[in-house]
Amino acid sequence: MSDSRVQGAASGRGSGGRRRAWSELLAGRVRRQERSPGRGQELQESAVLLLRSHLDWSHLLLEVEGPPHKKLCLGSWIDHDVPEACTHLSSSLIGSALRDHASLLGVPVAVLSSQMVASSIVRICEAEAEHAHRALLDSVQRKKLSSLIEIAQYLLAHSMFSRLSFCQELWKVQNSLLLEALWHLHVQNIVSLQELLESHADLQATVAWLFRNLRLLCEQIEASCQHTDIARAMLSDFVQMFVSNGFQKNSDLRRNVQPGQMPQVAVAVLERMLILALEALGAGLQEESPTHKAVSCWFSVFSIHTFCRTISTDSLKKFFSHTLTQILTYKPVLRVSDAVQMQREWSFARTHPLLTSVYRRLFVIVSPEELISHLQEVLETHEVNWQHVLSCVSTLVICLPEAQQLVNDWVARLLARAFESCDLDSMVTAFLVVRQAALEGPSVFLSYADWFQASFGSAKGYHGCSKKALVFLFKFLSDLVPFEAPRYMQVHILHPPLVPSKYRSLLTDYITLAKTRLADLKVSIENLGLYEDLSSARDVTESQPHSQAPQDVEKALLVFEHTGKIPVAVLEASIFRRPYYLSHFLPALLTPRVLPRVPDTRVAFIESLKRADKIPPSLYSTYRQACSAAEREKPEDAAPGMKVEPGHVEEPLELLTIALGELRAAMTDPVQYDVLSAQIAVISERVGSVLGLSEDRGSFEASKIQLSVLAPELEQQEQKVVDLLLTSFCQNLMAASSFAPPDRQGPWASRFVMTMCERTLLPAVLTRLCQLLHRQGPSLSASHVLGLAALAVHLGESRSALPEVHMGPPAPARGLSIPEFFNSLLTCGTAESSLLCLKFCTAAISYSLCKFSSQSRDVLYSCLSPGLIKKFQFMVFRLFSEARDPLSQEDTAGHPSKPWCLPSADWQQVALYLWKQRTFQELLKEEQFHLTYRNWLQLELEIQPEVDSLSDTERRDFHQWAIHEHFLPKPAAAGGCDGDLETACTVLVDVLMDFCQSSRSYDHSESSDLVLGGCTGNRDIFSRLQEMAVDLEQGPVAPYGHSSSRGHFLFGVFRRRLRALASGWDVATHLRRQRELLMCKRILLSLPPSVLVGSPQGEQPATPDCDEFFHLVNSELRNFCSHGGALTHDITVHFFRGLLNACSRSRDPSLTANLTLTTCQTECPIILTSALLWWPRLEPELHCRWKKCLQGPLPRELQRLREAQQFARSFLSPNTASPAPDPVWVSAAALHFAIQQVGKESVERELEKLDCQQEELLVFLFFFSLIGLLSSHLTPHAVNSLKALDICGKILGFLEKRKISWLVLFQLRETDASLGHILLRLAPDQYIRLLPFAFYSLLSYFDKDALLREDAFLHVAVDMYLKLICLFVDGDTSAVSIPASGIQELQGQAGAGALLQGDPVGLLTKARLFLLQSIPQCPKKSFSNIAELLATGGDCDPEVITALLSRQQAMSDTDLYQEPHLF
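Predicted structure:
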């Protein structure tokens, strides 16, 4: 038809009217038809005849939808803007015309219609000049095609359209067709794509045409943004059609079992598109290039959303499995040797993201078990592309949490099969898979070193079954040597397989081969660093030792700083790895620098090595000269420990920042595990690049982390990286929580945290956490606290795989698990630290309860330290008085995620909400989370009252509530005291002593005037102990159910604690016991004196209960809290105050005092000697108290003490001395103390009076003088040792002059009722052990002739000598060595004897010489008990023992040759 509008005649009756359009004329005729109905049919037939006579078939179907200004009226009828009746009218007119034309031509109307529609489609597609390079229509073409499809639908509905003929016509002009046109035909049900494709006779041409158009479609999708929705719908429909036809259930991809060629076409097209993508990846893709966009677009179809509800799961699995097989077997040109050499470049982070993305999509529909099985099947039945296989393994272990164990099991099966049948393929696969998985780090798989050692390092290894298996293993390892990286050979050498001794040659041959290869690569085993990670898989270059040595030096210095000893690794290297030690370690350590004025750790370490002869003198001399030169030349620039300039690592740091930003962007959907895991793997690789970490980071097996809480330090670069990671974690957590609660965020947080748990990174992370929580805690923002709390939870989740943390003071010396580590960082001492503790505990507990709400309680228990939950309970009780009341049923409600989602500004509200939750209250029912009375005391003792958040009054009220209302009535099973006040006091004393001896009590200040020797925070708690002790005293004497004979509870606590301590005479054990006893004494002195001396019982005679105190004095205080035979003044005065207090409650005070002191003479004599020592200060108080409270004279036993003191004073006066009062040993003690207090000249003059005293007094006085001699060496500021020795010598002289036996003093036994029982309780045990020293110190004062006549002399002398040797061997004689100043005073003085040498060796030499000279002169009766003595003494001195035995034998032989006296 013509495109011009048909003009009608002018309307109206004149010739000047306007010309009307054809439609108006028709409308007018219709109106006239209404007036003349009989003419309608005639007019219609005339119009149709007119149209038929002027019909142009080539443009008919195109003109129905032309532009408005060129349309015929027929176009108006079928325009979308006209009523539906008009459109139907246009289609009916066209259909009528086509029917008439077909009848004229003599062809079926359906065939003609199909040809006309096909021709019209071609004209629409060819309207654009560049249609050959496009797959999409433009908007004009799309509109024309839409109208054409409506006509085709009409024709189809009226059986005027042939699909087969239509398809054939289209394929004739296939190169002119656009893919979108066919898609519209399919969508509008004109002809389906399947029918269209199956109608083509040439299968290869069909595949080629589809492949070309799909590629164009993928390119246009990424290049165009106007019609993206249509394009993606097209691609999705085509892929769905291909998958549904090519991967139907029970279909076989290798042959066509269905009529038609559609399955083959579908599979072929999909395979060609995949090959196109893989070829592009192999050739290298540039970002934003058209090929890159096309590949990305095609890979996007492997999404589960593409096939949502349209394809069965079985078909989809078959498609994905087939695709994975195609990828794994694509161009299998790489050999195994290539894979061994290159697999390090195929890790997840280094694989192209497009390839890893398609792996992740393929993993979605297939279970991990099926994936492993499929991998195994492909490897067994196909030649594979090792790069794709190994990158697939990396993606598998990265993106699937279950993959580690599955891969482990798969490798175990492969190894079992390999060694069972010497299957080389299985062996190759196992090693390649393990090494590939190990490249991804310990957070996802074992390190290669750990795996190799676990698999072959024990008798249970796969290789241990036979010699054949061993040969197979070492043949395989030997074959790997030319190709594998040096690090793997180092692992094999340093962690070799366990081999029976008879097959040792196999191992040595391999080691020789591997070392030769390493030498060719210029890598030496000897040059490995001392602390180098043997699990690393990175290449080792010749220069590595120079970079490793400074790291070894820093780690060695750290160990030396904490232990004070040369690290074992350094000592071993100095012997077994001397080349590295001399060539690398020492030069790195001895770097010249300006030495500090105060020696630092490096200086001390170097000096320690020098003293141990671990530094060659020449090297040390050169180092000192270089340091001196540096100081002279330019001291300000000679700073040690130069670090790498930041510019060298700035680029990797920027890449890490970018990777963290990309992870932050992905947090909008925190559930997509594969996407987040992939990005986290990239972050892990970037972290390794920045810090220079190895790619196969090892596990923490049998290792520990050493930290310093008080001075945690990090290198600048380490701190930057850790800060980036911590900040990113906090931000990501907050972002993810804004989209979903923690329990619906997936495992991304655990995966991120595991990235920070690598061997060399975790110490830096924990050190930074120490800085943040221990130093900067109060300044942390709410998001920081929330993030760090969640980080602590996830670190606790991995506690089984992480090492223990060893921290310096004030933390415990033992190793701590990660949850315990966080617990130790949170203190409650001040108001600021208490608030931080509350925030952190609230956040951690809330996050855990929400995150693991659907999991077992065991998971929750592993994440949180019981100490953390207990601290939360403590803080809630302490800060919120409303929490102290029992919770009602209505209070315990709510969801655990609510506190996590509440605004964090009001922490008190959040904490109270958490406290009232039913879930949390149920958690507190677990025994391990009970806040016990002991726990509460431990935490309360840390509080520093001067900076407490509670006032003094509030704190006292809290203590009263906690002790008397909460814990005292609480059952013991729930952590209470069962209502027993004595139990409450016992626990309090126990905890108080623990706290005051722990380093925590000295954490805050160096000096303090608090009650217990500088311990902070214990004043109020100790006041509670005093109050409760008074309550106990005011209660009944014998509470119901308790025996009064049990004694005071306090001594039970002391006895139990002292028994738990180790016994021994080494310095450490001695100091620990002394510290414990000092605490016992301080607590005793702080409580009423009635604790020492109980109230007398009702029966007569009234004797106070002192047994417990006497036992403590005799067993402990005598040894550690005494001054050479006397207790300290404070405990002595406290006892006598208690005695007077007991007397005041007795019916007969004097009798009570006398009985008690009389008991002291036999049971605890040191009480009386202590009273004598301190009598000048003790007597006034005793006299005043007795006179004020009891009236009358002092009791008789107290008067005896006064008389003994008076005797000592009179003895030292110029007047004649009076006889010593009884008991004589008391008078001797008083005289000994008096002699010590006067000058040397006065002593020598007054000692002459001893010649007139009774023998017993001299013996006791000699014993006390011996104790004084030892005390002069052991006790600071004691009597001068020269004076003490001279006094002993004088008294010994009087004893020998009067022929009084004194040797018995060196043979004291506890069973001796006279001397031993008393004297052994007067001196510390250490003094008794050192009596051999005192014995031989008096050698020059001995009367040798008189001693030889003593039967017991030889026995005593040999016994003392043997014991002296034991003391020397044990090192105990060092305590009594004479200082250098004393040696000079001794020289030239008579009686110095063996002490002239000034050391125990000299004394021992003199004693030995004395014995060897004396033995031949001793009579026969002196040898009566020598054999028994030698049997117990061993062979300490063979020469002395030989002399003794020879002398004894000689005298026995003499007796044999003497004639017997028969009558």
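Summary: The longest helix spans residues 716-739.
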